[in-house]
Specification:
Four copies of one chain form a homotetramer. Chain A is mainly α. Chain A is built from 13 helices and no strands. The first copy, chain A, is extended. The interface between C and D is large, with 44 and 44 residues.
Chain lengths: 242, 242, 242, 242
């Protein structure tokens, strides 16, 4: 129907605006671009904030026409609308900039963090994000179990390495929290190489940790991957047949 | 039938030529080999171009005898043939060398990129490539969702690290795009180690990013692996029973 | 029932105590914290030991009321109870500290290892740990097979690299055990970068080992991930329908 | 039956001998151990060779009593036995040492490679190895397809990086084969960090290669893991019900 097509077009415009704006936030941190295109970035931000504020106010305006809120009176309907997670995300997408402008606090570093919250707004338009949340929720028991196993591995590996190389490399393995950085780097197979064992016993332990961790870290990966694929396909099924 | 056997033999010859030629392109960039075997590489290139040009012209010649193009006249049939993706790949496999020779532009670096396009021609003879394209196409929705999650993770990790270590290591985390190189290196578990956090807060963030990213990056891997295995086996089924 | 609710609450308190205590063990190794909060850490330890000892003695007290041990007399029931793996884990959670206190041996490094054994006590309260043990047990044949393949890969890669670069980098590849550290680092894709080949032949071998090992190391990961997911879901099924 | 039990015991003895011997080969390359336990290593080697030679001659002796070889005469049966892959592996497990001793060529480095061939003999006693070979064989089409995709990715990534950084870091990206070492290190997510891009364009390419390669490299991993798990379980089924 024309209404559906217009809704789809409006959604695409919003997604486009968010992507453009997020790119501006990212590029604005490059000093060279900030100097050269500062006004452009400001214009992008102002247009974005204007559009998001308009969108929010329009949604708020029509909130009491919406299905579940129709029967509870115009004020309570709008309050209930404002407390929905999606409405809070929409509010956070423009309010900080306006607040910063009004209060004359224009610290780009603080604002950047708030402006990146627009990723949450973007995620509302991606069907996959819902599936991911669903997958994590339905597998929370298995993921908790994996987290306990992984935490145990990390702390055990860190403690043993602290015992072996704590005095050889005190700035790297001098405490268990320090050694945990090594343990996570190794168990996740990232392996920067900025913290490595130097003694024979340390290297032997590192080798065992690599082999052990490699297998244990497969647990959450397998669980999430399987659950996510299942959720995505269930949603496809609903979209096709619903 | 003898025709089938000849077609299979012809395909094998073409695959062999492409492999020999690609090896020549790769080895030619080694200065030592370029000096020692320059003439051999030139000969390989000329023979290859000659054979690919012949193959292309022969295919073009018989284009109007081919099933779907039989009824639309000899000129339109050949034009339609030339616009097929596979015919364009075949043309790109020899035309640049001839053009470079005719126009006397013989810049090896530019030509090398075009000559590596022969990988596309090679992929036409691999049944797996079709399955891979099919797998990616059928899972495009899940892959888009994964891409959004991954982009969000990369930008968030980069922004936080930029906020924490931007002033400590300005040449490494001085802007979000710079920090994104670190984020991708870490989230993909490659972990070169050329860009690493040095502060306690930075290391703590890096550890969380490793654990988080490890799981999130499992999403596209699981989806592609599953879909590819499915497509490959469906094709096997068709080949066996079709 | 109220009894069940009390049991659940008691379990949660024990889990909380273990987590607090393990955090104290980890943080106590940081010299700064050890000086600043030494008394707090000691208090945490003493309270923990007191509670674990009380819990153990209470369990021991009621051991002869418990199902399977009811008929074998009070002394034998308590002895049998003490020899259960779970009771040994409970004993190890507090006995070393008391012994160290009584014998006036208060070496924190040795005690820390014993105190981390409380992770085993923690794992008793995680349903996932049982599933993991079950998964490893049921797939022991496949895992043994993977271990043989992996050991073969590690020793072969190490031997070849020792043959190629043993004389070029004697401190890194001078013996097969030394080269095995490189092999494990590479095959597990950790890749610290502290031990890398420098000759052309060594780099070529490293490339082949990476590609080969990447595939071979998928074996245990796939097996464990699948079996663990299966066990977790079977347990869910039992919890829901049992 | 007693015969079966004796066969199992004999197999275990052989596996034990191979493991002891392989450990000796590995440890003998450590100069310190070679000096201290040289005689022990020699004794282990001599006993092993004696036992393997005896085993081989016994098997050869009874070759014509064995099922398929019973009807073809004693000489032809023994020749056919000797040409079996498993018999060749058995011969290679002791012949090189005897040959080296007889010809007075006792170069440990050359011998070590032959002695490590005993891993092949070990693999004959691991049911998993057969499953792995079966898995690779049954999925050879999918694996070939993956190999083409991976080869294309490696060469493309290397060529592009050679074009971008070939002149900036000529000793690292000066030719495509050199750049291929970087490409394999990156695509396999090992990421040593000894060869990294330094320009902005190079880093951007590296980021794309990491993301792309991460997904593509999932293909063979998924295929092998799935097929291996299937073969292992089919074999379990046969062992249980056959």
């Amino acid at each position: 129907s024309p209404g559906d097509r217009m809704a789809t077009a409006a959604n695409r415009v919003i997604v486009l605006i968010i992507v453009v704006n997020l790119s501006a936030v990212v590029l604005e941190t490059v000093p060279h671009y900030a100097r050269a295109y500062g006004r452009l970035f400001l214009a992008v931000e102002l247009v974005t904030v204007l559009m998001f504020a308009t969108e929010y106010l329009l949604r708020l305006w029509v909130a009491d026409l919406h299905g579940p809120f129709r029967r509870i009176g115009p004020v309570r309907a709008r309050l209930r609308f404002m407390l929905q997670p999606s409405a809070i995300v929409d509010l956070l997408a423009f309010a900080p900039t306006i607040l910063g402008f009004v209060l004359d606090i224009w610290d780009l570093n603080v604002l950047a963090v708030f402006r990146l919250l627009r990723f949450l707004k973007l995620s509302r338009y991606s069907p996959g994000m819902g599936s991911l949340v669903q997958a994590v929720t339905s597998e929370r028991r298995a993921l908790t179990a994996s987290a306990v196993v992984m935490a145990g591995l990390i702390v055990s590996a860190a403690s043993l390495m602290h015992a072996i190389e704590g005095e050889v490399q005190p700035d790297r393995f001098g405490s268990i929290p320090l050694a945990m950085y090594w343990a996570v780097t190794t168990l996740s197979t990232v392996g920067y190489g900025d913290v490595v064992p130097v003694t024979g016993a340390g290297k032997a332990l590192a080798g065992v940790v690599m082999l052990f961790g490699f297998c244990m870290f497969a647990l959450p990966v397998g669980i999430i991957a399987t659950a996510f694929a299942r959720e995505i396909h269930q949603r496809d099924f609903v979209v096709t047949w619903g």
